[in-house]
Every structure is written in C-alpha cells, then in structure tokens.
Automatic annotation (TrEMBL):
GO molecular function: ATP binding; D-glucose binding; hexokinase activity
Domain called Hexokinase N-terminal: residue spans: 22-221
Protein's name in the database: Phosphotransferase
Family listed: Belongs to the hexokinase family.
GO cellular component entries: cytosol; mitochondrial outer membrane
Keyword Membrane: yes
Length: 485
C-alpha cells in the first residue's frame, strides 16, 4: 500500500513539472484580442515608417513598379518563368478576354542541376533559356503561326532583388542553396534576355516580380475587389496596393493608375507586442539569420514544427513521461510542420497517428494516451498563436489602407456607422490551404479583431499558383496597355 502511494506521489510530482512547462508555454503564447490589436497597430505604424524612408522600418516596403493589375479583358497567349527555388517552371496561358477566362494552361517543371546552383550566371540562364525554348516549340507545334508580335514573358524571381523599374532589378543576395557569385549585383532580366538571344528564342521579359505580386495579380484577375495578397507556407510574405502619394520615400512618384503594389517583406516584421517565448529566442539564436525574419519564425511552416520539437525536448529533460530522452529530439527541424498538422488533427479515439509520428519521427514509443494528448495540446498552442498573429498581420494591412472598418474616423463614430466595402485578400501557401485548424484559428481571430459586422465584408480567397500564372497575367496586362497606348 505504501509503495503504491509512493509511486502515485512520484507520478504526481512528474506531472506537476510537465503541467508547469505547459502552463508556461500557454501563457507565453497567449494572444488575447487586446494584444492582437496592438500587433495590428504596430504593423500599420511600421508600414508607414517603411514607406517614409529607406531603412526606416524592419519592413522593407519594396516598390514593385507594378501599377496596373489584370482587369480580365486580356486576350492572347502569354508565358511565365517562375524561378524561386531548386526547381523552376515555365508556363503558357491563353486568355479569352473575359474575367476568369483562362482558356488553356500548360506547365512544365524542371529541377535545376545541383552544379548550376553554384556555377555561373551564364550557365544557369543558358540552361533555363534552352528549356524555355524547347517548351515554346513543343507547345506551339501544330498551332497556327502567331502574328509577328514578340512573345511576352512574365518573370517571377523570388530572391531578394532591389528593383528600379518594372523590368529592372539587381540581385541583392542568394538564398535557398544558390551561390552564383558573379550574379550578385547584376540586372536579373538582362541576364535572362541575353541567354534567350543566345538560344535564338524570340521572347521579351515584360516584367520582373516576386511570388506575392503574382498572387495579387491572379487574385485581381478573378476578383476586382482584391487589394492584397498573403503567402503563408514554408515562408511568409505579403504585398498590397498602396496609393502612390503615400509612398513618401519616392517623392514625385507618378503612376497613371494612382497606385502601386508594395512588397512588404513582412516576415521581418517585429514588435515588442509579439508573444515571444524562450523557445523562439533559442530557435532564433541558433538559426543562420539571428535577429532576422522574426515574424516569419513565429508564423510560418518552416518553423512551427521545430518550436513543437523544442517544447517536447524540454519536457523530456524535466520528466520521463516520454520515456528515455530520444536523441532524435535534439535534431533541428526533424519534426516538420505537416507532421504537426497530422498530430493536431488526429481524430482517432486512441490518437494512433500521434503515436506513429512520435515513434517514427522522434523515436518516442509506447506512451500513454494521456501523453499523446499532451503532444496534441502542444501542437494546438503553437499553431493557434501562429494563426492568430497571421490574422493580426492581415488586419494591419487593412488598417493601413482604410479597409478595417474604422475608416480613419474620429469623433465617436462606431465601426457600424462606417460603410464597409467588400475587401478581398488573395491567399496562398500550404500552411493555410492544407492545415484546417490553422485556417480555422486565423478566421476566428479575424472575426474577433474586426468584429463580425466588419469581418463579413473581408474575404480571404485562395488562389493557386499565383507565382506562375500571375506572372503571365501581368505580362498580358502590360502588353494590353502598350497595345492601347
């Protein structure tokens, strides 16, 4: 009897330590609506600062020089090249002149050989141009010869670029495993077009954009009320339409439309109002880019799994409820976010998927249902915080452009007195599209921050492949303007 009591006492002490760690996590990740509104305000303030001067904010607020978006009236055949990682894609779309009328769409994906990622810019672009030429010839074989018009290409290049015009941008630095030294500081479009000339391909790069701008273009093509685009996947970023006269750092900026798409680079947003834990601090300090991309490290798919891993490791070091400390728990990024989603959304009575992932990925086997439920709870806390912060970021954009229902009013008028226009945010990325609980928490937070009267006018519209199709649509849009002009 005494032995049983002693065992129960030890079990109680063990769980008491676990509960303390969990409570600390929950408190550190708390996102009450008051705090979320502080994040909204901070986002809007940083946007203002980034538009006022270069380096005035952690938000880069990069000018894209995209001042016209597709209207749906575009007609013809257009191409896109999408280079943003270890694969690139070429696309061809046919447009029928009615909104949402993409008559046909052809895509080819091509992995970039490893050696070309560290070779020369000429080698890389010669490979891309030859693939593009083969694609064009294959797609156009057997079709009617096109008029004497040079083929128009939208070039989506999702690496850090300093743009000086719609078609002009200098590579700032490489990411994602590329290290082609002779290309840093060079004009990206010039290198591509020189390679197309060498390959004998009659094609013109109409513009240079990044994936968020492509998503915005695709959103606008389908829905004229689209004013912003957000990507929440492995990484995260946002862009939106800003009034040209609000871009103070580029005084005298004139656009015929009166607006310009601004690439926020919002992954680098930071505010003291963000709920940061010791796990976030450790993850940041051990990352290749400490003190950088703070917002991204709290909300994107690249990092959520690793935060969960760090919490489980901490509990394992303080208690043996997960059994002996698994060596796999010390491997950074071994637990990827899709596995977090699978554990979080496991609805089997015995949480079999949770048990399987703990065993196969983290080397933790034979744990009780109570411990499996604990793992689900950790996933829930980390994901909920991420989704609610992402929602606050979106509302921050809406606040900056007067679409959050406040209308910039003073004098005691309530939100319900302000006529709210329908507002569409195009959204892409697997974290949002594939993770139902993340999506549910994000939508719930939008409703809380805005209030249901306003939130009903805000639509998050999923788009697919903005980085590719959007580039081609922008080429079509600018081609139409040139033909009219």
């Amino acid at each position: 009897m005494k032995r049983r009591r002693f065992t129960a006492f030890l079990d109680w002490r063990k769980w008491k330590r676990v509960v303390r760690v969990l409570k600390e996590l929950e408190e550190g990740c708390e996102t009450p609506v008051g705090r979320l509104r502080q994040v909204v305000d901070a986002m809007a303030v940083e946007m203002h600062a980034g538009l006022a001067s270069e380096g005035g904010s952690k938000l880069k607020m990069l000018l894209t020089f995209v001042d016209h978006l597709p209207t749906g009236s575009e007609i013809g055949t257009y191409y896109a090249l999408d280079l943003g990682g270890t694969n690139f894609r070429v696309l061809r779309i046919q447009l029928g002149g009615r909104r949402s009328s993409i008559l046909s769409q052809d895509v080819e994906r091509q992995p970039i050989p490893q050696h070309l990622m560290t070779s020369t810019s000429e080698d890389l672009f010669d490979f891309i141009a030859s693939t593009l030429k083969h694609f064009v010839e294959k797609e156009e074989s057997g079709s009617e010869p096109s008029p004497v018009r040079t083929r128009e290409l939208g070039f989506t290049f999702s690496f850090p670029v300093k743009q000086s015009s719609l078609r002009s941008g200098i590579l700032i630095k490489w990411t994602k495993g590329f290290a082609i030294e002779d290309m840093v500081g060079k004009e990206v479009v010039e290198l591509l077009e020189a390679a197309m000339v060498r390959s004998g391909l009659d094609m013109r790069a109409a513009l240079l954009v990044n994936d968020t701008v492509g998503t915005l273009a695709l959103g606008r093509y389908h829905d004229a009320d689209t004013v912003a685009a957000v990507i929440i996947g492995t990484g995260t970023n946002a862009c939106y339409l800003e009034r040209a006269d609000a871009i103070i750092k580029c005084q005298g900026l004139l656009t015929t439309s009166g607006y310009m798409a601004v690439n926020m680079e919002w992954g680098n947003f930071w505010s003291s109002h963000l709920p940061r834990t010791s796990y976030d601090i450790d993850l940041d300090s051990e990352s290749p880019n400490p003190n950088d991309q703070g917002f991204e490290k709290m909300i994107s798919g690249m990092y959520l799994g690793d935060i969960v891993r760090r919490v489980i490791l901490r509990i394992s070091l303080e208690s043996d409820i997960f059994g002996p400390v698994s060596s796999r728990l010390s491997i950074p990024f071994i637990l990827q976010t899709p596995l977090v989603a699978a554990m979080h959304e496991d609805d089997s009575p015995e949480l079999k998927e949770v048990a399987k992932i703990l065993k196969e990925t983290l080397g933790i086997s034979e744990v009780s249902l109570k411990v499996r439920k604990l793992a689900v709870r950790i996933c829930d806390v980390v994901t909920r915080r991420a989704a609610r912060l992402a929602a606050a970021g979106i509302v921050g954009i809406l606040k900056k452009i007067g679409r959050d229902g406040s209308g910039g009013t003073t004098g005691g008028r309530s939100k319900s007195d302000v006529k709210m226009r329908r507002t569409v945010v195009a959204i892409e990325g697997g974290l949002y599209t594939s993770y139902a609980m993340f999506r549910q928490y994000l939508h719930g937070a939008l409703g809380e921050i805005l209030g249901e009267d306003v939130a009903q006018h805000v639509v998050l519209q999923v788009t697919e492949d903005g980085s590719g199709i959007g580039g081609a649509l922008l080429a079509a849009s600018y081609s139409s303007i040139l033909q009219r002009g």
